[in-house]
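@channel sequence for tomorrow's demo:
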Amino acid sequence: MSGLLRRRTFLRPRELRGGYDVVIVGGGVNGLSLAYNLAAHHGIRDVAVLERAYLGAGASGRNTQVVRANYNTPETVPLYARSLELWRTLSQELDFNVQFSTQGELDLCHTADALEVERDKALLNRAFGVATEILTVEEVVRLQPLVDPSGGGELPVLGASYHPPGSFARHDSVVWGYASAATRLGVAIHEELRVVGLDVRDGRCRGVVVEGGRTVEADAVVLAVAGWTSELASTAGLALPITTHPLQAFVTEPYAHVLDGLVSSMDLYVYVSQTARGELLVGAEILPYTTYSTRSTFGFLAEASRRAIQILPFMARARAMRQWAGLCDMTPDSSPILGASELDGLYLMAGMGTWGFKGAPIFGRSMAELVATGRTPALIAPFAPGRFAADRMVPDAASAGTH
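structure tokens (generated this afternoon):
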């Protein structure tokens, strides 16, 4: 039996060198996806990932694991549809079980306006080959008998959209899957190494400055630090249109399996799923104030619980076990920033709001192509940093969990 066992080395300790071909700031799912894709698909292995805490310490470890492609614009639907394709084979590609599971997503509508928006979205999705259906109330109840069609007697369900490809993946498994695969290919990953600024000389980003004043040079620097992107960019004199908002969630104690897929309300701004461990997971919209605090609040717990019970009354007796907050880097159009900045040598993977986990496979794949070749892939061209100055925004607040 011992002959069948294999030893896995997930991270190899390395000395920080004075320079690399590419330095990626941020050891979350997107920074690690980029590092892996540079090494695996472009042969660029002289790459360093610098993480100020531990891998997945930021938004990657604080999301709710949802993967989907049912978005609202002609630019975002094909982007996330391609990402969903990559998700389906990611475990095999990384040789690491990311616990990917397709269970479907049900989005309830309680108003005529919300149902009309979902009808339009379904038409757009299907035009790009993404399965999204509109269901009647009777079809909703057949699909998910636990839903209260009366909406707690306050907001009756008028219909719903259903996205059969809606899926889940375990966030920490994805982080370590990318990290271990990148490490095997020669990428250097450094934890507990804080980047405090960008090294700009002669109008070009030449590297980064880490805590203690040491400079690490690079031909290309990529910022993949979510809500902290604007702070780091400001050290080079760049002002980015990003504000940082909290997004909270909670889980109950584990229970026997009862709920398949994701159930959400488009009018109540709440969504519920059940984890592989049996916890009922509840999330809601981003909060309207800006902060860098990751402390969750009792107000959120009370309000999100009320909304969840309104659509799924069986949850009334469930006991909350743990709650948390993550940070979302929101742009004016609620779409990500992916591409080369106005500063030569500096690239941005930011402004992803609530979408960063869902898009990680295609974000890393596309940005790796840009960094390696200098050519912007068509899928991410609409999300270039310069779109704001050019007034070519991609407005999709409805998909980003904002009012």
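heads up for whoever presents: Residues 356-373 form the longest helix (18 residues).
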